[in-house]
Amino acid sequence: MMPTMKVRTLLAVASLMTAPVALASEVDPWESTNRKIFAFNEQVDRVVLKPVAQGYQQLVPTLGRQAVGNVFSNLSEVSSFVNALLQASPEKAATALGRFVFNSTFGLFGLLDVSSTFGLQQQSEDFGQTLAHWGVSSGPYVMLPLLGPATVRDGASSLSVDRMLDPVGQLNPSSHQMGVQVGRVIDTRASLLAAERFIVGDRYAALRAAYLDRRAFEINDGAAAGADDFLSE
To answer: How confident is the model at residue 225 (pLDDT cuts 50, 70, 90)?
Structure first.
């Protein structure tokens, strides 16, 4: 997860504790089942993922964790480049390509985000955003086992096209893919530890609101999005 996305997630969790109940009933028609899957995910997180992430945060210095995050962020530029082309956005595509080239070379294989100092700010693009750009509806909110929150559109995209565009999936032998993916999950979970202090009350509802707000923010390229956007995208 790139640094800007981490910030957006933190802000979303802090600001959306009072999401309209009426909106929730419309975007989350499978809430009963979703909550059961969420409870399972929470148990896995509590027993395995969170303790590992806390240990990672304690053992690895801040600069080291930042470098690891930069590498994963740099790899995501491949998907951003392709999806920007699919969205007929040459400017975004050029930015993604430029970031990948600069960070992979001058940034020591992505350990350093030198592109930001050149004024090339990251704009993450994925296939869910591409489908939204061309008018495909998000569909209902869904909680995926182990993978977390999504919508039907975005979940299907992440498990298909985005996975194919992920350079990690091209690692050979394939056994290396699992190790890198585990590292990515731990890095992402560690980056979200600070957000937990903002979550009060119904944790499921708070994270649902945060996810939908972040996706609306990304799909609208940072423009403000209201409740209706969650239903119409």
So the answer is: low
The tokens for 170 are 């091209």
Note the pLDDT tens digit of each residue in 19-61. Answer: 444 456 678 999 999 999 999 999 999 999 999 999 999 999 9
Return the H-helix or E-strand segment holding 96: helix 90-105
Over residues 168-188, the pLDDT tens digits come to 988 887 778 888 999 999 999
- For the chain, how many residues are written? 233
φ, ψ at 80 (rounded to 5°): -60, -40
Report which residue type is found at 19.
A
d(CA 124, CA 94): 13
Single-letter amino acid code for the residue at 47: V
Q: How far is CA 188 from CA 83, 117, 137, 170, 195, in A?
A: 22, 23, 27, 21, 12
The widest CA-to-CA distance across the chain, in whole angstroms, is 50
Rounded Cα–Cα distance for residues 197 and 50 (Å): 14
The answer to whether 224 touches 85, Cβ cutoff 8 Å, is no
**8 A C-beta contact, residue 165 and residue 178:** no
pLDDT for 4: 44
